[in-house]
Design a protein that fits this description.
The chain is of the alpha+beta class. It contains six helices and five strands, in the order H-E-H-E-H-E-H-E-E-H-H. It is globular.
């Protein structure tokens, strides 16, 4: 009986690691290959009127130093007007801005888009200002829509 209780407790603990509302990281599986997903992400960002600040290709950088790394890129983007307001609430927000989405492909060929849930910033940066909380909520919704559009 004791073993069953321990197994049940462990399964509940690890079931919380899945992508659920309130998670620090949100992950969506793409129906496209790595390069196509990255390009779709950049195109979607620009189509939404956001600024694409750049793309970091971690796997290409690793290759340059002779190390193999599965396909992995980070796309940096944002809205400087909203970002500036968030940094006025707390300058430490500059650590998480501009926004970023990680696109990676595992060894099975599954490509995913991963980003930090913006609502986590309220804890990390001690954001309590109602205006900033509203912006963070809008950013979260926008990131969900962007990732969903890119993935499908």
């Amino acid at each position: 009986m004791k073993k069953w209780l321990i197994l049940a407790a462990l399964s509940l603990l690890f079931s919380g690691c899945e992508n659920k509302k309130g998670a620090f990281l949100e992950r969506v599986t793409s129906h496209h290959y790595q390069q196509s997903t990255v390009q779709r992400l950049i195109d979607t960002i620009k189509a939404k009127g956001l600024t694409h600040f750049g793309t970091i290709d971690h796997s290409d950088n690793a290759k340059k130093v002779g190390i193999a790394l599965k396909p992995e890129s980070v796309v940096l983007f944002g809205n400087p007007k909203m970002g500036t307001v968030l940094m006025q609430c707390n300058p430490s927000m500059g650590l998480d801005l501009p926004l970023r989405i990680l696109v990676t492909t595992d060894y099975k060929g599954e490509t995913t888009l991963t980003y930090t849930n913006p609502e986590y910033w309220t804890l990390k940066h001690n954001i309590k200002d109602k205006k900033c909380l509203g912006i963070i909520q809008k950013v979260h919704i926008a990131m969900q829509k962007i990732v969903d559009a890119v993935a499908n």
